[in-house]
């Protein structure tokens, strides 16, 4: 019986093993590793046979397991010849003598997140999908982490544990804006692929400018050529390169280690725009990684700058935007920057410490581009001031392709419009800080335009204070104590000053105000695209409408100064605008020129006139008008022709309508006209409308000192005095030797 039991047991065991074996075979066939699957990166390098030395460095760096297990990597693997050359260049005896630190830098710098064959290496991984041909950089596994740094704080040098900021200080969210804990600030590598070059209009010279000793193939990686691409591995892609590439410095690190730029670094950048901020989260991370408790500081750049030169993450508007762009610095060498600072920046200051920080920030930002500026793109990409790089390639004394951008050391200054146009006389003179503030808010773009010529009248802080203006920088508030000793608040004062300021800016393409002290004339202020109000001058006496109303001329004091787009005059008074009404203007003018008194009388007795506030229906405050005043002889002719009633106080309704229509016909809307030869305006709209409610058009013929108006009967009526004009509150008035019928 026992033997029979054993026999049955053995049969069942054999059956079980057979079934199990079949199931395992089926399982392995379905779930097992396919024979056709490529080896992992580490094993694939072994199989290729040209990478024995980088394999040793991988072992020493502790990355064998990482590269031999599941993952998704691109590895730019230097072959044995490349590693041998590296050892020779670094005077390292053999591969075993390479330190673990150097081995780790080489391996992690060559290891890029995600797997990219050549058909995708030039494409940008946007949040919405692939964007073809827009990528030339990839994030690596390498980062600097925490570093010990000797830092001078309040004049005392201290050794701090420092981490670089990993954001650009552009927005404040979730606490500290310049540092996000958990973001290691990984470095990027730069490559140059034919697809990217073609779609971005770049050539081989854009690459070889940085690497003159390396020939460009269709695919270059840092300072090496890709000699075999797209080696497929189970956990990624291998691209074989012919040189070893160590991690590049960041822009911040390069400046810190290069004394050719020590004046920029030690006298401008670090003292005014770098701070070391203690950070609790970074301190906890440091303790977790090292087991040591210590205060960690974040090296942060002031948000006044375009970007932080130690941030490896580019803008971080999208997670991968560092793939498609980088920063660029154009930094002048000491021998260039020092004399420029002495002769230009410090013309009105005794020391850099006296220069406003906003001005220093403007200066630094002339050197910072928030884009990768390839050598062929100097004239295409602009900095935050909307200026292209004003350099020839021969002006570049030093060029570096760094981890977070391009660095150009220059043998000349960037020819910034801020410091070469007429604007420089405001931005670089502390006596005009209030005018600078007003300019920067509204009209800086006009006076920094090198393609137009301007004359600018400069009014000082002291002059504003003498005239009752005050600015409280603590609360950003303007006020004005007017001539009646009333205190006017910010909401009225600032717009008033902006209007006054625009009257002090005059586009003068032919230097029309060159001899303002010995000539007479008139000119429209502002930019010709956005015309301002008229001013006039006579032998050194300058008037805007308010000055004429008050009888207080403006005079030039001292000599004119120049920029590459015009000249500036210093003045002893403001070019004021007038707040007078139409009624006040007509009263003033008719009092001094009785030849237009009859026109005034008809206006004042028309149904349009509002005696209570001395205004006219149809004339809106703040709009521009030209009022044509037929002189007394012309009025009489209009009466004789039956166009006007004989009395300026008619009782008959039909006669009242005649007066109203006559006045409306002689008021031109939305335009100031003067005999300045402006032939762009050939017609103007009057207030008068026909029976179909269509505005009556008045023709304009404008030659220098010969302004004429043409009515619907094709009669031409000239202005009486072409060498002068009457100006009021956004209104120009002319005496006419005739009338519009």
Automatic annotation (TrEMBL):
Q: Which InterPro entries match?
A: Adhesion/Biosynth-related, FAS1_dom_sf, FAS1_domain
Per the database record, which ranges form the FAS1 domain?
38-245, 419-575, 583-740
Q: Where is the signal peptide?
A: 1-25
Entry keywords, A to Z: Signal
Q: Entry's PROSITE patterns? A: FAS1, PROKAR_LIPOPROTEIN
**Is Transmembrane helix one of the keywords UniProt gives this record?**
no
- What is the name listed in the Swiss-Prot or TrEMBL entry for this protein? FAS1 domain-containing protein
What species is this protein from? Sphingobacterium alkalisoli
